[in-house]
Amino acid sequence: MELKGKTILITGGASGIGLEAAKQFLEIGAKVIITGRNQDKLDKAKKLYPELTAIKSDLASPADAELLYSRIKESGGIDILYNNAGVLVPTSNLGKADDKHAESAAYEMEINYLGVIRINNIFMDMLKSRKEAAIINTTSILSMVPSLIEATYSSSKVALAFYTVSLREHMRIIGSSLKIFELVPPLVATEMTAERNDKKITSEEMAKGLIKGLQGDVYTIRVGDAKIFDPIRRFFPKLAFKIINPKKTDQFLK
Ligand SMILES: NC(=O)c1ccc[n+]([C@@H]2O[C@H](COP(=O)([O-])OP(=O)(O)OC[C@H]3O[C@@H](n4cnc5c(N)ncnc54)[C@H](OP(=O)(O)O)[C@@H]3O)[C@@H](O)[C@H]2O)c1
Protein backbone atom coordinates (compact mmCIF):
# COMPACT_ATOMS: atom_id res chain seq x y z
CA MET A 1 0.00 0.00 0.00
CA GLU A 2 1.02 3.61 -0.49
CA LEU A 3 2.16 5.33 2.71
CA LYS A 4 3.07 8.77 1.38
CA GLY A 5 0.32 11.28 2.16
CA LYS A 6 -1.48 8.91 4.52
CA THR A 7 -2.42 9.86 8.09
CA ILE A 8 -1.31 7.21 10.56
CA LEU A 9 -2.37 6.87 14.19
CA ILE A 10 0.18 4.95 16.29
CA THR A 11 -1.02 3.93 19.74
CA GLY A 12 1.83 3.95 22.28
CA GLY A 13 3.99 5.83 19.79
CA ALA A 14 6.04 7.87 22.28
CA SER A 15 8.76 5.23 22.74
CA GLY A 16 10.22 1.98 21.44
CA ILE A 17 9.11 0.50 18.12
CA GLY A 18 6.20 2.95 17.82
CA LEU A 19 8.40 6.04 18.03
CA GLU A 20 10.90 4.67 15.53
CA ALA A 21 8.05 3.76 13.16
CA ALA A 22 6.68 7.31 13.58
CA LYS A 23 10.06 8.71 12.55
CA GLN A 24 10.27 6.48 9.46
CA PHE A 25 6.64 7.18 8.44
CA LEU A 26 7.34 10.94 8.66
CA GLU A 27 10.42 10.49 6.45
CA ILE A 28 8.25 8.81 3.79
CA GLY A 29 5.84 11.75 3.80
CA ALA A 30 3.02 10.44 6.01
CA LYS A 31 1.30 12.45 8.73
CA VAL A 32 1.64 10.81 12.13
CA ILE A 33 -0.40 10.99 15.32
CA ILE A 34 0.94 9.23 18.41
CA THR A 35 -0.73 8.41 21.71
CA GLY A 36 0.42 7.26 25.14
CA ARG A 37 -0.37 7.62 28.83
CA ASN A 38 2.67 9.63 29.84
CA GLN A 39 2.63 13.34 28.92
CA ASP A 40 6.39 13.76 29.49
CA LYS A 41 7.17 10.99 27.00
CA LEU A 42 4.76 12.52 24.49
CA ASP A 43 6.38 15.96 24.93
CA LYS A 44 9.84 14.48 24.41
CA ALA A 45 8.72 12.73 21.23
CA LYS A 46 7.17 15.95 19.92
CA LYS A 47 10.41 17.80 20.67
CA LEU A 48 12.36 15.20 18.66
CA TYR A 49 9.91 15.26 15.74
CA PRO A 50 7.90 18.52 15.79
CA GLU A 51 5.73 17.39 12.83
CA LEU A 52 4.13 14.76 15.10
CA THR A 53 0.73 15.24 16.66
CA ALA A 54 0.89 13.82 20.20
CA ILE A 55 -2.29 13.07 22.14
CA LYS A 56 -2.46 11.76 25.70
CA SER A 57 -4.80 8.77 25.61
CA ASP A 58 -5.00 5.54 27.60
CA LEU A 59 -5.97 2.50 25.54
CA ALA A 60 -7.50 0.91 28.62
CA SER A 61 -10.06 3.72 28.92
CA PRO A 62 -13.18 3.57 26.70
CA ALA A 63 -13.79 7.29 27.40
CA ASP A 64 -10.27 8.17 26.22
CA ALA A 65 -10.79 6.15 23.04
CA GLU A 66 -14.01 8.05 22.26
CA LEU A 67 -12.31 11.41 22.94
CA LEU A 68 -9.40 10.43 20.71
CA TYR A 69 -11.82 9.53 17.93
CA SER A 70 -13.63 12.91 18.19
CA ARG A 71 -10.37 14.83 18.10
CA ILE A 72 -9.07 12.90 15.12
CA LYS A 73 -12.37 13.16 13.23
CA GLU A 74 -12.37 16.95 13.67
CA SER A 75 -8.86 17.18 12.24
CA GLY A 76 -9.61 15.16 9.09
CA GLY A 77 -9.44 11.50 10.17
CA ILE A 78 -6.87 8.76 9.64
CA ASP A 79 -6.07 6.20 6.94
CA ILE A 80 -4.05 3.78 9.05
CA LEU A 81 -4.61 2.65 12.63
CA TYR A 82 -1.39 1.09 13.90
CA ASN A 83 -2.11 -0.76 17.14
CA ASN A 84 1.33 -0.73 18.70
CA ALA A 85 0.72 -0.04 22.42
CA GLY A 86 1.38 -3.12 24.50
CA VAL A 87 2.35 -4.20 28.01
CA LEU A 88 4.17 -7.18 29.45
CA VAL A 89 4.23 -8.40 33.03
CA PRO A 90 6.86 -11.13 33.62
CA THR A 91 5.17 -14.31 34.84
CA SER A 92 6.04 -16.08 38.04
CA ASN A 93 5.25 -19.83 38.24
CA LEU A 94 1.56 -20.26 37.33
CA GLY A 95 1.57 -23.53 39.24
CA LYS A 96 2.02 -21.67 42.52
CA ALA A 97 -1.06 -19.86 43.82
CA ASP A 98 -0.67 -16.08 43.61
CA ASP A 99 -3.32 -13.35 43.25
CA LYS A 100 -0.98 -11.48 40.90
CA HIS A 101 -1.48 -14.07 38.12
CA ALA A 102 -5.05 -12.98 37.41
CA GLU A 103 -4.26 -9.31 38.00
CA SER A 104 -1.42 -9.14 35.48
CA ALA A 105 -3.25 -11.32 32.96
CA ALA A 106 -6.26 -8.97 33.13
CA TYR A 107 -3.99 -5.93 32.66
CA GLU A 108 -2.29 -7.49 29.63
CA MET A 109 -5.58 -8.62 28.10
CA GLU A 110 -7.12 -5.18 28.63
CA ILE A 111 -4.38 -3.38 26.69
CA ASN A 112 -2.96 -6.00 24.32
CA TYR A 113 -6.32 -7.47 23.25
CA LEU A 114 -9.54 -5.79 24.45
CA GLY A 115 -8.20 -2.25 23.97
CA VAL A 116 -7.33 -3.09 20.36
CA ILE A 117 -10.78 -4.48 19.60
CA ARG A 118 -12.38 -1.43 21.21
CA ILE A 119 -10.35 1.13 19.27
CA ASN A 120 -10.67 -0.77 15.98
CA ASN A 121 -14.43 -0.79 16.44
CA ILE A 122 -14.52 2.97 17.11
CA PHE A 123 -12.46 3.79 13.99
CA MET A 124 -13.95 1.06 11.77
CA ASP A 125 -16.44 3.14 9.77
CA MET A 126 -13.95 5.98 9.33
CA LEU A 127 -11.31 3.58 8.01
CA LYS A 128 -13.76 1.74 5.74
CA SER A 129 -14.77 5.03 4.15
CA ARG A 130 -11.20 5.90 3.08
CA LYS A 131 -9.85 5.12 -0.39
CA GLU A 132 -6.95 2.97 0.82
CA ALA A 133 -6.82 2.22 4.54
CA ALA A 134 -5.42 -0.30 6.98
CA ILE A 135 -5.35 -1.62 10.51
CA ILE A 136 -2.06 -3.02 11.84
CA ASN A 137 -2.25 -5.25 14.92
CA THR A 138 1.03 -5.99 16.70
CA THR A 139 1.29 -9.56 17.94
CA SER A 140 4.64 -11.22 18.72
CA ILE A 141 6.89 -14.18 17.97
CA LEU A 142 5.41 -15.35 21.31
CA SER A 143 2.01 -15.77 19.66
CA MET A 144 3.58 -18.77 17.87
CA VAL A 145 5.10 -20.47 20.93
CA PRO A 146 4.56 -19.42 24.56
CA SER A 147 7.38 -18.06 26.63
CA LEU A 148 7.14 -19.64 30.08
CA ILE A 149 8.44 -16.50 31.77
CA GLU A 150 5.97 -14.33 29.81
CA ALA A 151 3.10 -16.81 29.81
CA THR A 152 0.10 -14.50 30.20
CA TYR A 153 1.61 -11.96 27.77
CA SER A 154 2.05 -14.75 25.17
CA SER A 155 -1.60 -15.72 25.69
CA SER A 156 -2.79 -12.15 25.14
CA LYS A 157 -0.89 -12.02 21.85
CA VAL A 158 -2.41 -15.34 20.69
CA ALA A 159 -5.86 -13.87 21.32
CA LEU A 160 -4.90 -10.84 19.23
CA ALA A 161 -3.46 -13.02 16.45
CA PHE A 162 -6.70 -15.07 16.14
CA TYR A 163 -8.81 -11.91 16.25
CA THR A 164 -6.65 -10.41 13.47
CA VAL A 165 -7.10 -13.42 11.16
CA SER A 166 -10.86 -13.31 11.77
CA LEU A 167 -11.07 -9.55 11.20
CA ARG A 168 -9.25 -9.91 7.87
CA GLU A 169 -11.68 -12.61 6.73
CA HIS A 170 -14.69 -10.60 7.96
CA MET A 171 -13.51 -7.72 5.74
CA ARG A 172 -13.35 -10.08 2.76
CA ILE A 173 -16.85 -11.43 3.46
CA ILE A 174 -18.39 -7.95 3.55
CA GLY A 175 -16.42 -6.88 0.47
CA SER A 176 -14.43 -4.17 2.27
CA SER A 177 -11.05 -3.11 0.93
CA LEU A 178 -9.77 -2.22 4.43
CA LYS A 179 -6.43 -4.02 4.79
CA ILE A 180 -5.75 -5.94 7.97
CA PHE A 181 -2.08 -6.48 8.78
CA GLU A 182 -0.53 -8.53 11.55
CA LEU A 183 2.93 -7.35 12.62
CA VAL A 184 4.95 -10.15 14.23
CA PRO A 185 8.10 -8.77 15.87
CA PRO A 186 10.95 -10.94 17.18
CA LEU A 187 12.85 -9.75 20.29
CA VAL A 188 13.47 -6.01 19.80
CA ALA A 189 15.70 -3.79 21.96
CA THR A 190 13.24 -1.44 23.71
CA GLU A 191 12.22 -0.53 27.27
CA MET A 192 9.99 -3.60 27.29
CA THR A 193 12.92 -5.99 26.85
CA ALA A 194 15.59 -4.02 28.75
CA GLU A 195 16.02 -6.89 31.25
CA ARG A 196 16.60 -9.50 28.55
CA ASN A 197 20.16 -10.36 27.45
CA ASP A 198 19.18 -12.46 24.44
CA LYS A 199 19.70 -11.59 20.77
CA LYS A 200 17.64 -8.52 19.84
CA ILE A 201 17.13 -6.48 16.70
CA THR A 202 16.94 -2.68 16.82
CA SER A 203 13.72 -0.68 16.59
CA GLU A 204 15.12 0.77 13.39
CA GLU A 205 15.36 -2.67 11.72
CA MET A 206 11.93 -3.50 13.09
CA ALA A 207 10.28 -0.37 11.64
CA LYS A 208 12.04 -0.90 8.30
CA GLY A 209 10.59 -4.41 8.15
CA LEU A 210 7.13 -3.08 8.97
CA ILE A 211 7.28 -0.46 6.21
CA LYS A 212 8.56 -2.97 3.64
CA GLY A 213 5.70 -5.31 4.53
CA LEU A 214 3.08 -2.56 4.31
CA GLN A 215 4.38 -1.31 0.96
CA GLY A 216 4.37 -4.87 -0.41
CA ASP A 217 0.89 -5.70 0.99
CA VAL A 218 2.29 -8.62 2.99
CA TYR A 219 -0.59 -9.13 5.40
CA THR A 220 1.38 -11.09 7.99
CA ILE A 221 4.59 -9.14 8.46
CA ARG A 222 7.18 -11.30 10.20
CA VAL A 223 10.42 -9.46 10.87
CA GLY A 224 13.90 -10.84 11.62
CA ASP A 225 13.87 -14.20 13.42
CA ALA A 226 10.05 -14.22 13.41
CA LYS A 227 10.32 -15.08 9.70
CA ILE A 228 12.45 -18.22 10.07
CA PHE A 229 10.65 -19.14 13.27
CA ASP A 230 7.36 -19.74 11.44
CA PRO A 231 8.55 -22.86 9.53
CA ILE A 232 10.54 -24.02 12.59
CA ARG A 233 7.46 -24.08 14.83
CA ARG A 234 5.39 -25.79 12.10
CA PHE A 235 7.83 -28.59 11.32
CA PHE A 236 9.86 -28.82 14.54
CA PRO A 237 7.52 -27.73 17.36
CA LYS A 238 9.69 -29.20 20.16
CA LEU A 239 12.74 -27.36 18.87
CA ALA A 240 10.74 -24.14 18.63
CA PHE A 241 9.65 -24.56 22.24
CA LYS A 242 13.27 -25.09 23.34
CA ILE A 243 14.47 -22.02 21.44
CA ILE A 244 11.93 -19.80 23.21
CA ASN A 245 12.37 -21.58 26.55
CA PRO A 246 16.01 -22.57 27.03
CA LYS A 247 16.69 -24.71 30.13
CA LYS A 248 18.33 -21.74 31.92
CA THR A 249 14.95 -19.95 32.16
CA ASP A 250 13.63 -22.72 34.48
CA GLN A 251 15.51 -21.11 37.37
CA PHE A 252 13.26 -18.00 37.18
CA LEU A 253 10.20 -20.17 37.75
CA LYS A 254 11.50 -22.34 40.60
N1 LIG B 1 10.18 -5.30 22.16
C1 LIG B 1 9.93 -6.54 21.77
O1 LIG B 1 10.81 -7.42 21.84
C2 LIG B 1 8.58 -6.93 21.24
C3 LIG B 1 8.45 -8.21 20.69
C4 LIG B 1 7.21 -8.59 20.19
C5 LIG B 1 6.14 -7.71 20.24
N2 LIG B 1 6.30 -6.48 20.77
C6 LIG B 1 5.15 -5.59 20.80
O2 LIG B 1 5.46 -4.39 20.12
C7 LIG B 1 4.70 -3.31 20.66
C8 LIG B 1 5.63 -2.17 21.03
O3 LIG B 1 6.51 -2.64 22.04
P1 LIG B 1 7.86 -1.91 22.47
O4 LIG B 1 8.88 -2.97 22.62
O5 LIG B 1 8.11 -0.74 21.61
O6 LIG B 1 7.45 -1.50 23.97
P2 LIG B 1 7.69 -0.16 24.79
O7 LIG B 1 8.98 0.46 24.44
O8 LIG B 1 7.40 -0.54 26.20
O9 LIG B 1 6.52 0.77 24.22
C9 LIG B 1 5.18 0.48 24.46
C10 LIG B 1 4.41 1.78 24.32
O10 LIG B 1 3.04 1.50 24.62
C11 LIG B 1 2.54 2.56 25.40
N3 LIG B 1 1.42 2.08 26.20
C12 LIG B 1 1.41 1.09 27.12
N4 LIG B 1 0.20 0.97 27.66
C13 LIG B 1 -0.58 1.91 27.06
C14 LIG B 1 -1.93 2.28 27.19
N5 LIG B 1 -2.74 1.70 28.10
N6 LIG B 1 -2.41 3.28 26.43
C15 LIG B 1 -1.60 3.90 25.53
N7 LIG B 1 -0.31 3.59 25.36
C16 LIG B 1 0.20 2.61 26.12
C17 LIG B 1 3.73 3.00 26.27
O11 LIG B 1 3.63 4.37 26.63
P3 LIG B 1 3.05 4.88 28.04
O12 LIG B 1 3.60 3.97 29.10
O13 LIG B 1 3.49 6.29 28.13
O14 LIG B 1 1.57 4.78 27.92
C18 LIG B 1 4.90 2.84 25.31
O15 LIG B 1 5.15 4.03 24.59
C19 LIG B 1 3.94 -3.90 21.85
O16 LIG B 1 2.63 -4.25 21.45
C20 LIG B 1 4.72 -5.16 22.18
O17 LIG B 1 3.93 -6.13 22.83
C21 LIG B 1 7.50 -6.06 21.27
Architecture overview:
This protein has 254 residues and is α/β, with parallel strands linked by helices. The chain has helices at residues 16-28, 39-48, 62-74, 100-128, 151-173, 203-215, 225-235, 237-244, 250-253, and strands spanning 7-10, 31-36, 53-56, 80-83, 134-138, 179-184, 220-222. It has a 7-stranded parallel sheet with strand order 3-2-1-4-5-6-7, with helices on both faces. Helix 2 (39-48) links the parallel strand 2 (31-36) and strand 3. The chain is globular and about 55 Å long. The site of NADP nicotinamide-adenine-dinucleotide phosphate has 29 residues, from helix 1 and strand 2.
List keywords for this structure.
13% strand, 254 residues, binds NADP nicotinamide-adenine-dinucleotide phosphate
What amount of the residues lies in strands? 5-15%
Q: Share of helix among residues?
A: 40-55%
Domains (count):
1
Using the 3D structure, state the CATH architecture. 3-Layer(aba) Sandwich
How is this fold's topology laid out?
Blueprint: E1 7-10, H1 16-28, E2 31-36, H2 39-48, E3 53-56, H3 62-74, E4 80-83, H4 100-128, E5 134-138, H5 151-173, E6 179-184, H6 203-215, E7 220-222, H7 225-235, H8 237-244, H9 250-253
Parallel strand pairs: 1-2, 1-4, 2-3, 4-5, 5-6, 6-7
Helix pairs in contact: 1-6, 3-4, 4-5, 7-8
Bound molecules: NADP nicotinamide-adenine-dinucleotide phosphate.
NADP nicotinamide-adenine-dinucleotide phosphate binds at residues 11-12, 14-18, 35-38, 41, 58-60, 84-87, 111, 138, 140, 185, 187-188, 190-193.
